[in-house]
Amino acid sequence: MATADDAPTVPGQALGGPGAPRQRRESDPATAAPEHLDLAALEAEAAALLPPAVADFYAGGAESETTLAEAPAAWRTWRLRPRVLTGLSAVRLRTSLLGSDVATPIGIAPWAYQALAHPDGERGSARAAAASGALLTVSTSASAPLAEVAATEPGAPKWFQLYRQHSPAHTDDLARRAGQAGYRALVLTVDLPVLGRRLRDVASGFALPADLPPGNLPTESAVEAESPVWTVDDIARFGDLSGLPVVTKGVLRGDDAARCVQAGAAAVWVSTHGGRQADPAVASAHALPEVVDAVGDDAEVYVDGGLRSGSDVFTALALGADAVFVGRPAIWGLATGGADGVSRVLDGLTAQLAHTMLLCGVPDVRSVPRDAVTPAR
Ligand SMILES: Cc1cc2nc3c(=O)[nH]c(=O)nc-3n(C[C@H](O)[C@H](O)[C@H](O)COP(=O)(O)O)c2cc1C
Ligand SMILES: CC(C)CC(=O)C(=O)O
């Protein structure tokens, strides 16, 4: 429902109000109707299904995990200011991101090695994104080749996330191939000049299994294959190589955002990399307003990190984000239910967003007013 074109979202029908058909069991988070999405239960279910070291790799952050822990709480430092008596009975969820039409402003963040979570892997995420009308960002460190993921639901919009490789020729080749394969933007992840110190992985001895498909990487050790330093000149260079608009992911400061846009970035993506890089880093929810102010109308702004409910998403949109992305919720969906599990997460969060919009009297995801939220006192 929530992803239908301009179809109205009516609380009584679409959000499981009185008389709404109930097709799935409420007690099972993996099969619950979207409005009953229980991410905490899904997270626990995923952790129980996965080998402990893999579960820790997905769940973990860097250093003291302060940023990781604070991310969801930071969204909850904002409060909704519902507008009443608006007569609103339907909301619009559809929007456009760098010219691609999407049915929801909630996309899938790039995350590595998806075959470790479920055999559906990245192709499953691509099917889910297409089914939910959501944007998919595919990691350089995918466990499937970029062209194969692009060819899964080829009509659905996908972006390719680029890490710089040891070999400049390999990095250039990935950028070119991303453009040729039909990706619609190139996302340079700029917050990983070195890998964050992830103590859970040290403790567990996490290592990639020898039989994990190499995807886009020429060596057996994907993490060590990266030599990840970007400069601002790379924005124009990789835009030219790929023929794609460039997004810089991992920006937390207004001055950096302005530099990116000046250098030609079409969008800036506020992110702490899921608390896996600098720690303790400012929460995305607190960095977002500064970046939005610095960018103005010159580029799009996205955000990720700790978004776990429709009201979190609503807050991000009110603070000026054009779209949000989820990492771990998509991981939990894939681990517990493959492609269908990812779709349930996307549809559930989108349904929650629609619900919040109705409660707050906001008709359109493209224009959630800044004064729809206020700091908690
Ligand atoms: C297991 C895992 C793998 C990730 N792999 C990548 C990656 O390959 N490239 C990238 O740019 N970001 C990567 N990220 C960061 C995500 O894109 C995203 O910024 C983060 O997960 C958002 O926070 P959330 O998990 O709280 O939603 C990864 C995150 C996790 C948890
Ligand atoms: C290959 C890794 C660097 C993937 C990643 O971004 C992460 O684990 O956070």
UniProtKB/TrEMBL annotation:
Q: What domain of life? A: Bacteria
Q: Which cofactor does it need?
A: FMN
Q: Active site: which residues?
A: H273
What would be an example GO MF term here?
A: oxidoreductase activity
The FMN hydroxy acid dehydrogenase domain sits at 31-377
Does the record bear Flavoprotein in its keywords?
Answer: yes
Entry keyword RNA-binding:
no
What Gene3D superfamilies does this protein's entry cite? Answer: Aldolase class I
A GO CC annotation given for this chain: cytoplasm
List the keywords (alphabetical).
Answer: Flavoprotein, FMN, Oxidoreductase
Region annotation Disordered: residue ranges? Answer: 1-31
Q: Which family does it belong to?
A: Belongs to the FMN-dependent alpha-hydroxy acid dehydrogenase family.
PANTHER family, alphabetized: 2-HYDROXYACID OXIDASE 1 (PTHR10578:SF107), S -2-HYDROXY-ACID OXIDASE-RELATED (PTHR10578)
Name it: 4-hydroxymandelate oxidase
Its organism's taxonomic lineage begins at:
Bacteria, Bacillati, Actinomycetota, Actinomycetes, Geodermatophilales
